[in-house]
């Protein structure tokens, strides 16, 4: 752990990142949190600083969807539109019954809208239905553009559709459902999907590749890209994917160990699109290492932010790496390689 923190310090000194927050899990428990570099021009980064976790949101969204499935509120292999009343996919030449919950979770439903660019501070976020129909500040709309089940096609918009699914099947706003059914039970007190959360005022600043501060963009597709959290909170979340030090089960009673296993079972090959690991499960990237160890987790990219969560479940260890700079992706990959050993 100390070696990796020192490596992060060197990367910041070499201007390969503005700031890096790190957190570590060993034997199923969080064992350390650290921060190096700057939160902003004159403010040192601390472990309490909140980051945009970007697509790490997809891991949390998968927990919420799988929790509803285990409570009998939905079926993973049912057409997702069976459960919707507030919005429908626009007509296409493809069979929408193949757009199942499982395929949306695994990016194999043939859906458009890979990424969300975010909205500038002060702009009112659109309603979720309007966002799905294209009010995304340039990201496009959500539609079926190829046969469901044909192949892996990354769709952040698909996770916004899952956000709507969670709201319809739970009867709660998505951010409230996540807070009550995931964050509070896991002790994630500095995490939120609510774009209006006071945590946004306690966040570090994102920076472009040259180190210039960027606005704190907000995301209408919260389930795809709108998670705010500290590295320590995300480490608590990572630890919940594995058995705890006092025999706590994987899933911590929020979802079952079987749900975690299903989530981390490969569903598709990614062809390493956009730097993803080679396989994808249900909301999770998966990489089988040459040393026989399998990693699961996710990368995250929002404007001004980079994130990486990696779990070695067999060894009951994990690492969370967050950076507030567009240029920091290679730095986080180098730190991950050091952690893997």
How would you describe this protein?
This protein is of the alpha+beta class. It has one domain (2-340): Beta-lactamase (3-Layer(aba) Sandwich). It has ten helices and twelve strands. The strands form two sheets. The protein has a nine-stranded antiparallel β-sheet with strand order 3-2-1-12-11-10-9-8-7, sandwiched between helices. β2 (29-40) and β3 (43-44) form a beta hairpin. The chain is globular, with a radius of gyration of 19 Å. The mean pLDDT is 96.
What is shown here, in short?
The protein is an alpha+beta fold and 341 residues long. 27% of the residues lie in helices and 18% in strands.
How helix-rich are the residues, as a percent range? 25-40%
Which word captures the global form?
globular
Report the mean per-residue pLDDT as an integer: 96
How many DSSP H or I helices? 10
Radius of gyration: 19 Å
Task: Determine the structural class based on helices, strands and strand pairing.
Answer: alpha+beta
Superfamily at the CATH H level?
Answer: DD-peptidase/beta-lactamase superfamily
Uncertain residue ranges: none
Count of individual beta strands: 12
| Secondary-structure element string | HEEEEHHHHHEHEHHEEEEEEH
Number of domains: 1
Strand content: 15-25%
**CATH-defined architecture:** 3-Layer(aba) Sandwich
**How far apart are the first and last residues' alpha carbons, in Å?**
11 Å
Q: What quaternary form is this?
A: single chain
CATH class: Alpha Beta
CATH topology title: Beta-lactamase
Strand order of the largest sheet: 3-2-1-12-11-10-9-8-7
Characterize the largest beta sheet: strand count, sense, and whether it forms a barrel.
9 strands, antiparallel
């Amino acid at each position: 752990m100390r070696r990796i923190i020192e490596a992060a310090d060197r990367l910041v000194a070499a201007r390969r990142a503005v700031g890096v927050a790190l957190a570590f899990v060993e034997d199923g428990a969080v064992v350390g949190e650290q921060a190096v570099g700057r939160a902003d021009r004159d403010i040192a980064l601390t472990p309490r600083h909140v980051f945009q976790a970007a697509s790490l949101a997809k891991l949390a969204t998968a927990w919420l969807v799988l929790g509803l499935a285990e409570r009998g509120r939905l079926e993973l292999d049912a057409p997702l539109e069976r459960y919707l009343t507030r919005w429908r996919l626009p007509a296409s030449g493809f069979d929408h019954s193949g757009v199942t919950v499982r395929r949306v979770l695994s990016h194999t439903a043939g859906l458009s809208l890979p990424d969300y660019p975010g909205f500038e501070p002060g702009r009112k976020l659109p309603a979720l239905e309007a966002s799905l129909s294209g009010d995304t500040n340039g990201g496009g709309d959500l539609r079926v553009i190829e046969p469901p089940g044909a192949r892996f096609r990354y769709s952040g918009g698909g996770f916004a559709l899952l956000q709507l699914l969670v709201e319809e099947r739970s009867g709660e706003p998505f951010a409230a459902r996540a807070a009550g059914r995931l964050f509070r039970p896991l002790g994630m007190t500095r995490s939120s999907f609510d774009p209006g959360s006071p945590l946004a005022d306690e966040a570090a600043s994102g920076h472009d590749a040259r180190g210039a501060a960027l606005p704190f963009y907000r995301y209408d597709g919260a389930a795809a890209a709108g998670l705010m959290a500290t590295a320590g909170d995300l480490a608590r979340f990572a630890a919940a994917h594995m058995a705890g030090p006092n025999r706590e089960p994987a899933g911590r009673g929020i979802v079952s160990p079987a749900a975690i296993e299903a989530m981390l079972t490969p569903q598709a090959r990614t062809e390493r699109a956009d730097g993803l690991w080679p396989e994808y499960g249900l909301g999770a990237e998966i990489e089988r290492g040459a040393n026989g160890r399998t990693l699961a987790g996710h990368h995250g990219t929002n404007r001004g932010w980079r994130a990486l969560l990696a779990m070695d479940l067999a060894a009951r260890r994990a690492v969370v790496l967050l950076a507030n700079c567009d240029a920091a992706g290679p730095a986080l990959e180098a730190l991950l390689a050091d952690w893997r050993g």
